[in-house]
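Hello,

I think I submitted the iron/sulfur cluster job twice by accident. Can you confirm which output corresponds to this input? Input:
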Amino acid sequence: MGYPLKIRGRIFTISPRRTIHNLFFLRAPQGVLWLNLPHMNDQLKAYTERYIELEAAVRQLIARKGNSLCSQCSCICCDAVMCIEAMKSPFLKLIHQQMDEYDAEKGFLTATGCALKKGRPSVCYEYFCDDHFYNQPDELHADVLKIIGSLLYHAIQNADGETSIDDIQTLEKLDLADFQSLEKNLSESFQALEIIQAFYRDGKMPDESLAFLKTIRIPEEFQ
Ligand code: SF4
Ligand code: SF4
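Support: Only one job matched these inputs. Its output is below.
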């Protein structure tokens, strides 16, 4: 028996103990793989390449000690209902190019973790089970973890009005996305990333840095 979970206005049926996914155990950094797709316009190509860089950096932060509980988890919460987002989105398909690895029953989940090296749905990074927050040394670290999970979400907003780039349904419309907004969001995510990297390195969070981190949009369901 599953139970309904509303994520970004859509209702998913989730099986018990498999909430949304978050397969950190295979979130080890894969390096940046550059795209060479001739039909992409220059703005889409530039944005996509930087997005891949951001995704790799987010994975690195999630894989660090203290954040990587999923690697020892015996009850992985990935679910094909989430994986399918990576098959429906032309933007994510452009990134991962692993459509042939999708399985109707298991999605992208394999015995060794998520098959997607990049281009996972952003929700795959947004969700952290409670254990992650209990495991953080204090509230600030817990808030920072939540922001890490939202950096990709922030970067993809307002590609076409309220529509995020992963929700644009055709390649033609992708070419026409609002790259000015997208680049601004992406730059903000990178700026937040640098703040978080410095925080983990030095243990300091100046007030102005914290104020900036609070401008990163966190999906309503994970606030
Ligand atoms: S540790 Fe939590 S978030 Fe990670 S796979 Fe297990 S249940 Fe999911
Ligand atoms: S795409 Fe990968 S990380 Fe996301 S739910 Fe599916 S198997 Fe898990």
